[in-house]
Design a protein that fits this description.
By secondary structure, the chain is mostly helical. 57% of the residues lie in helices and 3% in strands. Strands 1-2 form a two-stranded antiparallel ribbon. The longest helix is centred in the middle third of the chain and has 18 residues. The termini are far apart.
């Protein structure tokens, strides 16, 4: 199937055709992808769907047959532990929290990555009570808000703007207020309602 390179005077340029679809080629594609990128089941299915469509466009396979192969492959990868959405979602959620993502932000990002509600719920349930406060503090530090502003003289003048920034990031007002008005050091958070962060 020729394509045209506009920088080459419009002369056709041939792409190498994909190998014919088979359970083996799809499995090889899936394993190569999983070796490079931790992926949810939905993300892997999307990758394989593009691979199938390309092969079908070249007349090198049947989409319906290939879809059945993908179902069997995904079930096998899930059973062998190569695909484990709950564990992966929990690991990604913890990493996002360390970088300053709120529970609400983590939920949204995991959904965008293709994780189903059950895996997202497990990831959020795995968070410790103090994780939301730690994430808010990390976010404020990274964005230089409140006690992390370089110019302490501007801290009071910027208070409302800093509170709004934490609110937009998904943190509760009470937690944002404690972080922005605090000293910037970790404190014991006694009130569980302040850890909701939109949960």
């Amino acid at each position: 199937m020729p394509t045209f390179d506009p920088d080459d005077g419009g002369r056709p340029r041939r792409r190498r055709p994909p190998p014919p679809l088979s359970p083996t080629t799809l499995r090889d594609e899936a394993l190569r992808y999983l070796e490079r990128f931790p992926a949810s089941e939905a993300r892997l299915r999307a990758v394989l769907a593009r691979r199938i469509q390309r092969a079908v466009d070249w007349g090198r396979g049947d989409a319906t047959t290939a879809a059945a192969w993908v179902d069997a492959l995904v079930a096998d990868l899930r059973e062998s532990g190569r695909l484990d959405d709950p564990s992966l979602a929990t690991a990604i959620g913890a990493a996002l929290g360390r970088r300053g993502a709120s529970a609400r932000g983590i939920r949204e990002k995991l959904h965008r990555r293709g994780f189903q509600a059950e895996a997202v719920g497990e990831a959020l349930a795995a968070r410790a009570p103090h994780d939301e406060a730690d994430a808010a503090r990390a976010y404020a530090r990274r964005r230089r808000l409140g006690p992390f502003r370089r110019d302490s003289a501007s801290r009071a003048a910027s208070r409302d703007k800093d509170l709004a920034a934490l609110g937009r990031a998904g943190f509760s007002f009470d937690l944002a207020r404690r972080i922005i008005d605090g000293s910037g050091t970790a404190e014991e958070e006694d009130d569980p309602k302040n850890h909701g962060g939109g949960r």
